[in-house]
Amino acid sequence: MSSLRSKTVKEMSDLLDEYEIKHGPVVDSTRSLYERKLKEAMAKGKKAKPSPDQTYYREEEEVTYEYRTPDRSDGAGDSGSYIRSRPAWSERELKHETSYSNYSRPKPEYGGKEFSDEPHMYDLPPTSKSPYLKSTPGPPKEAPKAPPSSRLVPLWVQFVFFVAVAVFLYLVFSSMETNEPIKGIE
Amino acid sequence: MSTTSQKHRDFVGEPMGDKSVTSLSGIGEILGKKLEQQGFDKAYVVLGQFLLLKKDSEMFSEWLKDASGANSRQAGSCSQCLREWCDSFL
């Protein structure tokens, strides 16, 4: 290894760039500092010269990340790929902490498109619940889909609870309609 | 602001003019003498070195430690002092 002292300013500058050391002009007062820095860098083991490949990889990383982000938002509707819908489901889980996500989870492949819209329709009368009962074949499909989530309350319990609440509300609503014969407040 | 010393605030608050090296935060009598021996007799000369190192705090701290024997705290303090001065006046 040739002595750093004998290198020209240009050579020093090139070496510093090689080791990706941010530097200013190599003048008398800065020279010894840069020589020391280069010695340390060399002792650590030579980093590869900054090759264009590295920048390409970074671009690829950035590009794929950009491609992924729109997919995440649409991933619910696309039942084609497992991988994309997984992050979509986990995101939706975080967003909708209610049982809405319970409905959408077992069914990503089942007809993911319809059920992604379903969360907004949960106020419908219970007749719409019958398709949900078909979710029993859902659980086996849940295995590859659902990431191992640690649930305090099992999925089916939440399901039953929701049905019970809906039935209760329906009963309350239907009982309110029978006020017509009672006209005592007039 | 509350974590900086009075010396720091005094330096950073106005153009340095011809102030001596010891007016820099972190640089006391002993370090000041060592710097003067190497030709850095005024604060603006040390500023010059800071600028030569492209205002890189880490580089400047290392240089200062080499040149004057400052410890990490003193070098960091001086570095921050110069950086803030530059932000205001450069």
Please state the overall shape of chain A, judged from the principal axes of the Cα atoms. rod-shaped
Please mark out the parts of chain A with pLDDT under 50 across 5 or more consecutive residues, or reply none: 71-85, 97-104, 106-115
Percentage of β-strand residues of chain A: under 5%
What's the quaternary structure here?
heterodimer
Order of helices and strands of chain B: HHHHH
What is the count of β-strands of chain A? Answer: 0
Alpha-carbon distance between the two ends of chain B: 20 Å
Based on CA atoms alone, the radius of gyration of chain B comes out at 11 Å
Principal-axis shape of chain B equals: globular
Derived structural class of chain A = mainly alpha
* Structural class computed from helices and strand pairing of chain B: mainly alpha
Core attributes:
heterodimer, A: 186 residues, mainly alpha, 61% helix, B: 90 residues, 5 helices
